[in-house]
Amino acid sequence: MAQGSLIVCNAGTISRPVSRANGFVGLFEGGGRFAAGCKELRLCAGKEGLKRTRFSARASMEEFLKVDGTKKIGVDSKVWLNLIDAELQRGNEKQALELAKQLRAFGAAQLVPQRAYTLEELRLNKIEAEKFLSPVDSTLGSIRGNLQVAAVLLGVTTWRVLDLNQYQLLSAVVLFVFLGTVDQIANGGGVEALLLDTIGRLLSEKYRDRVAKHEAGHFLVAYLMGFMPKSYTLSSLDAFQRFGALNVQAGTTFIDFEFQEEVQGGKVSSGTLDKVSCIALAGVATEYILYGVAEGGLSDINQLDELMKILGFTQRKADSQVRWAVLNTVSILRRHLNLHSKLANFMSAGKSVLECVGLIEEELADSSNI
């Protein structure tokens, strides 16, 4: 048995691996399994056998996790990750989130003091707000312009080769404009976004790299701020194939039921808003730090702006919230640039969410400045 592996005991004895028919789910280290109705949880280590530390008479995993509301026992993060995976496979996001709270780095980011910051203070921290908060995607803009020129040239060539009359040519132009308008109305420009993103990924390595780093920024900041990532995509095609979303170039989803409950209740706590603000700006912050200017992330900024309008923020209060979030997010990312680079490589290689989380935990295992 591997040192530090977690064993579930049933009726006071160490259980052997059993089948799902007996009600056990979630295979993890050492061949043990966690049962929703287990009676006892023990920590074992190698040949030393059963240690004195034990958590007895727990009616369920839920009851065990309710104790103290803090991180419980110093077991390897892989144990918790496997338990989280088991709960996600069962569709139990609330339980998965409770398990995630046992991980050392989850929600452990050190934050800058929450107060009103001026633009001058941001500049003193080498942050130029005008380059940060006004992203323009020059790569896709260039591709869009080239496609429009190509479409015109193709139309002229087709007209001459096929010897179309002016009415046929006009009909073709009207059809082209009509299809574009339908896409904008019905799909929010989704078909165009899918086309541009796919071409961008095929033609530009820099674009692929930027998108991966952008999403890695969202993933890392969210995790360190206490939002558990659930899935990610790095292309419009992947998003369309997995979620049927047409107007998404890339994205990261989270276990955010707590946030949704607050929104539905009409009141978002300041702590939750702080987290959401930093997560929304993390992609833009990543591009700003790495490239000096952000190209992607305009929709992230717009969504954050819309949220603060819904919450009834004045412009002054919204500006204060954004400036704090900008400074805090940039500070987190600057502390962990090496980890962020490794995470972006993991995501580009298609690693699972839990593999990415495992990387974060491994890299920050001995860090005193998360």
Looking at CATH, the homologous superfamily of the largest domain is Peptidase M41
Model regions low in confidence, pLDDT < 50 over at least 5 residues: 1-60
CATH class placement of the largest domain: Mainly Alpha
Report how far the terminal alpha carbons are from each other.
32 Å
E-strand count: 8
Morphology: globular
The number of distinct helices, counting runs of at least 4 residues, comes to 16
Q: Count structural domains.
A: 2
CATH topology of the largest domain: Methane Monooxygenase Hydroxylase, Chain G, domain 1
Second rung of CATH, namely the architecture of the largest domain: Up-down Bundle
* Strands ordered across the widest β-sheet: 2-1-5-6
Helix content: 55-70%
Q: What is the CA-based Rg, rounded?
A: 25 Å
Strand percentage, roughly? 5-15%
Computed structural class: alpha+beta
N-to-C SSE series?
EEEEEEHHHHHHHHHEHEHHHHHH
Main beta sheet strand tally, sense and closure: 4 strands, antiparallel
Question: Would you summarize the structure shown here?
Answer:
One of its GO terms (molecular function) is metalloendopeptidase activity. With 370 residues, the protein is α+β, with helices and mostly antiparallel strands.
3D architecture notes:
- It is a single chain.
- The protein is globular, with a radius of gyration of 25 Å.
- The chain folds into two domains: 6-100, no CATH class; 119-138 and 201-363, Peptidase M41 (Methane Monooxygenase Hydroxylase, Chain G, domain 1, Up-down Bundle).
- 58% of the residues lie in helices and 10% in strands.
- It is α+β, with helices and mostly antiparallel strands and 370 residues long.
- The protein has a four-stranded antiparallel sheet, with no helix packed on it.
- The model is unreliable at 1-60 (pLDDT under 50).
- The chain contains 16 helices and eight strands.
